[in-house]
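NAD-dependent epimerase/dehydratase family protein
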Amino acid sequence: MIQIDKTKPVMVSGATGYVAGWLVKKLLDEGLTVHAAVRNPDNREKLKVLDELANQSSGTIKYFKSDLLDEGSYAEAMEGCELVFHTASPFTLSVNDPQKELVEPALLGTRNVLEQANRTESVKRVVLTSSVAAIYGDNIDIKNTANGIFTEEDWNTSSSLTHGAYPYSKTLAEKEAWKINREQSRWDLVVINPSLVMGPAVNPQNVTSESYAIIKQIADGTLKAGVPYIGWGVVDVRDVAEAHFQAGFVSTASGRHIVSGHNTTFLGLSNTLLPKYGNAYPIPKKEMPKWLIWLVGPMLNKALTRKYISRNVGYGWKADSKKSIRELGIQYRSLEETVNEMFEQLVEADVL
């Protein structure tokens, strides 16, 4: 059991990120000192929202220049910290060079942060932001699970550099984290495996998460003719941040944690928006048959390869998140609240 001293600073990598923004807010509201590891601490405009969060809280934020690919660059930020949150990792599906844009930042970044934890005597615990993408690669993989449901025991074995490069990068990164953790005995590792993260951002003008691209496609008419039947897990970004916080400070927390509030589908997301926004936006109301997606999908989106379509379209998704409820005390928000508040924020910010 690990006891974290809340008078000591805590480090957050990727502090300007989607999940990290809410985590930093939670830490500051709890009165902690946050060492925010960011690429450019001189970019005051990008850090303005975090400064405002600090000003409205009883906590303190300090910025440190760090880069996922720069070995040793987290040393100053980690100094004196008992708790490290490693949230920094790219989430995008449209890349030109998956090795350089996804695998290297995820794998080398994790190695960089965790090896610095090895060199920093004060560190007692590292909380890693992984993903359910490290648990499965394609929806069809659910056929290989013990009881037709994904659990923390499952690992993604179907992704590769050429098929599902993003899930592949998350799998490699988490496996590397466990390897580094096993090779020492001073700090423990707790992993958060969220499903598709949605909900309002601390800073909606600075979000690059793929979930925002999905919401924009639902709203802008791209999918007006219909959406594919693809099962997804969805979780509110605020619940993911709370899971990170609890993973850091619950002394008995250990291992992996699937953090997912809802087993749903593409159409399930759309349906939550129809009552309020259905008349004002071309939100899809039906599913498109698989044979049609097979024909036109690769022309509409390069991520919709025939292999992806064959292994994902037409398959549901189901995961067991009871461990996060039982051990971290997470109470999940409703899907309607998550999606509608995200959509409303984008409307107000003129992002749509």
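thats it. The longest helix spans residues 98-119. The first strand starts at residue 10 and ends at 13. bye
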